[in-house]
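Notes from the 1:1 (GR / supervisor)

We went over the backlog. Supervisor wanted to see one worked example end to end before approving the batch request, so GR pasted a single chain during the call. The sequence is below; no edits were made to it. Supervisor asked that the structure be written out right there so they could see what the output format looks like.
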Amino acid sequence: MSDQLSVPRARRGRVIFDTFRSAYDPRLAAWLLFRSYVLPELAATQLAVQEAAPDSQLASLGVFGVWRLLATNNRELARCAAVFSSPAAAVEAALVDQRRTGELQLAAVRGPVATKHAWVLRGGGRPVVTSARWYESAGEAVAAGRMATTVLASAEVVQAVSIGTASGRRSRVLERSS
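Structure output shown during the call:
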């Protein structure tokens, strides 16, 4: 009876990473379509916007890399705005973005119709993070953006990459130790 009870660890959000086998991957197409509505200025830009370090172990896993922010219940809260040239570049960008959450500016954006709104975090005038879904009002989108910013600041950055297989399924590959 005198033993102390252990205090359970508080659960944190997670930043996870996905990669795609080619520019024709259907999941990448869906990602780019949503981004084109949220960030029309990036709709016609090249996919690979940032290069990976040449000695990176994650560079060989896939063609492109993206990061996503998940809540403790695995619901997707946010996505990176860029599609990186490799998973390694996405990991490095997520770590940088996480360190500078206090410097990012939140703004609501209107979607393709009046009842669709999203949010974007910008740093230095450049889009860095976007919402992962549509909201019915700009106020709801901004509130969700504030929550995602709070979660991102303390999220666990998972050092693994989800990679597509020939069948279209995803598998998680641990390539990097923290």
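Supervisor's comment: The longest helix spans residues 138-154.
Batch request approved.
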